Amino acid sequence: MATFETTIDVMNPIWNRDAWARLQGNLDSSKTKFIASKGTVMGVEDGKAVYPMCGFEATLATRLEPQEDGTIRRINRETIIYTDARTGEIINEWTDPETKEVVPVVHVYNDPFNYSISEWLIIMPEDFGGDKPVAPIKVPLIFPWRDLGNGMMELSTDMHLYYPNQLQPAQWPRESSGPMVQVSEMMRYQFKKADIENPELTGVDYTGSWSRVTPWLPWMLRGTKPGHVLYMGSNVCSDNTDIFSANIRAHLEANAPEFLTAPDSDYGPSLSSLEHYAKEQTPAPVK
User: How many C-beta atoms lie closer than 10 Å to residue 115's C-beta?
Assistant: First the structure.
């Protein structure tokens, strides 16, 4: 188990690394942190109000492996299970509210999705994804932290990406939103200030939110239709799976029980949901 900084110093990259790791997981590698994010997938189009398309519940099972060089490997399995936005029932078909076409739902099962946490933040330059190789930019890890008062703090982590689509239009005419993909993820963690300062706590509990802006989901078969999807969910974490909704937990127990545990080793590759879709699905017939 790694030693870690507990004295709050928001301009110290080492403290940022350790605090972020303790929120995401537990520096005691024998322990797993479970995270559930539950909310709504909304459609955003010009000329109309934002509207609910379906619900979702995302589950994460995460274990941390501190490394000798000071980095921390985040070892993780994650799912996104799509649901009825009103009842929370798992859906396997979805009806497009505009065209009334009924399409199969493709849930997300990422095993694994791992990365390293360090005192450095790796940023891809604006020309990432072009036809020439580009070197990432390495800057000290300094996050925006906020003292909320009443003994509470908040961490914000935002990521904005623009990269080549794994589902190119020529091969995936109905699934592809176009040659490039624009994606943003915004995380908010609210936690007790005393917990992040406590040297006895190798992991810190939090509540928070997850927002994601992304093109139409490929299984929606909306292609290059103008508009996009907005996920908005609230997050809770625990050392057990009781935080997962009962129907989600039962679904995983019956169909993918490995997602109720974190990986016991650091294997790969770590693929995005679009990469999994490209590998596991076949293009829908053109209508």
Answer: 13
